[in-house]
Write a structure and sequence with these properties.
258 residues; mainly alpha; two-stranded antiparallel sheet; 49% helix
């Protein structure tokens, strides 16, 4: 009899210990899920269960409702960029003059080369607009997000860009002052490369604190290099060996410089 009572007491203690270990293991499992998958994943699991625990829920047992955005937050919402919108609707409202329509049709048909528009029209902005419309009709695609107005196309004609149809806005940073030849210069840099202006600015500071830099112009001019094509790499190597002799180099340079 006494042995039976001892055995039952042992079973009761063991069952009580198992009951205490179950919630401990469950909480450890939730902590593991929280650290591995994130709080949103764990909340979706816990909120779908029928248990009485209030893990990540309000005091009433239901998830806390998200507060509606305040009027101040709504007022501070960023406005969409106008340059990213479609320009098709605005272009449709502006009817192109009949003369420009004829020029566009000629460019599309290949009767007028696009690169002569600036010279023939004498208006670089007008030429860019006609070329832009011709490209739209040829490709069947709108040039969205690329502004046309607000740029001096005459300033780039014959200099740094051919066949323009618009322009791209780039941020411009200022590096300096650069102490060069006893004068201070501020260098504008148009770039989208992060840290480029900052590193250049640090270089300017180091130069200034070191007493400045001095420049010397050794030669001012343009260089050109002839190209010789051979059927094999072996023949090209033979020419290289031939030109290493100064006399041969001078003879060949006289032929190319005629």
């Amino acid at each position: 009899m006494q042995e039976d009572l001892i055995h039952q007491a042992t079973l009761c203690r063991q069952s009580r210990s198992d009951a205490l270990q179950i919630p401990i293991h469950r909480h450890c499992f939730l902590i593991y899920l929280l650290s591995f998958f994130g709080i949103a994943f764990v909340q979706s699991i816990v909120s779908s269960s029928d248990d009485d625990e209030d893990f990540l829920v309000g005091s009433s047992g239901a998830p806390a409702a998200a507060a509606p955005p305040s009027s101040r937050q709504q007022a501070q919402a960023p406005a969409p960029c106008a340059l990213l919108g479609s320009t098709a609707a605005a272009a449709a409202l502006e009817k192109m003059p009949e003369e420009d329509e004829e020029i566009v049709a000629s460019v599309v048909a290949g009767k007028i080369p696009s690169y002569v528009l600036e010279t023939r029209l004498g208006d670089c902005r007008r030429a860019a607009g006609i070329r832009r419309e011709a490209v739209r009709r040829i490709t069947g695609r709108e040039i969205d997000g690329l502004p046309l107005d607000g740029f001096d196309y005459a300033s780039i004609f014959g200099q740094c860009c051919e066949l323009p149809v618009g322009y791209v806005q780039l941020p411009v940073g200022i590096a300096g002052p650069l102490l060069l030849d006893g004068q201070r210069f501020y260098v504008p840099m148009a770039t989208t490369e992060g840290c480029l202006v900052a590193s250049t600015n640090r270089g300017c500071k180091a130069i200034a604190e070191s007493g400045g830099a001095t420049s010397v112009v050794l030669r001012d001019g343009m260089t050109r290099a002839p190209v010789a094509r051979f059927p094999t790499a072996r023949r090209a190597a033979e020419l290289k060996a031939f030109l290493e002799d100064p006399a041969n180099f001078d003879t060949l340079s006289m032929v190319f410089n005629r």
